[in-house]
Amino acid sequence: MLDPDRPHTTYLIGRLDRIIRRALEERLRSYGVTVLGYTALTVLAVRPGLSNAQLARRSFMTPQGMNQAVAVLAQRGFIERSPDSDNRRRQRIELTDLGRHVVDECSAAVDEYEQQLLEVLGPAAREELNRLLHTVVDANRLHREPARSNAAE
Length: 153
What we know:
Layout: H1 9-28, H2 35-46, H3 52-58, H4 63-75, E1 79-83, E2 91-95, H5 97-118, H6 123-144
């Protein structure tokens, strides 16, 4: 039986996800990016030269959705695409100087929001929350994600 005083953890995570997404969309809008666009840019900041398929997987998007996002990010001058030297049909995606600047600016805004979001927790509780979330993510990623071949990229 459901206990109204103790909602499922998955429900609470979903609520928090919506709260965070709404707040980040609001903060990132002035930089010309969405949360998904920002996610893609941050992935490229640490892993330049990914293909569309690789970027989609690492950004939690479908390849089709990433195609649209990449087109918008390229149009805004945040990324550039170039043919892969090993496979001319594959495009490698990298940040432009403007893209790196936008990542830096957005990351500062995201960091500030995260501090506000978690200010109710002390440093030890923040570390514990981070550790617990990593544990759940890692356990489910290892057991749930299907193996992918490079041929599909």
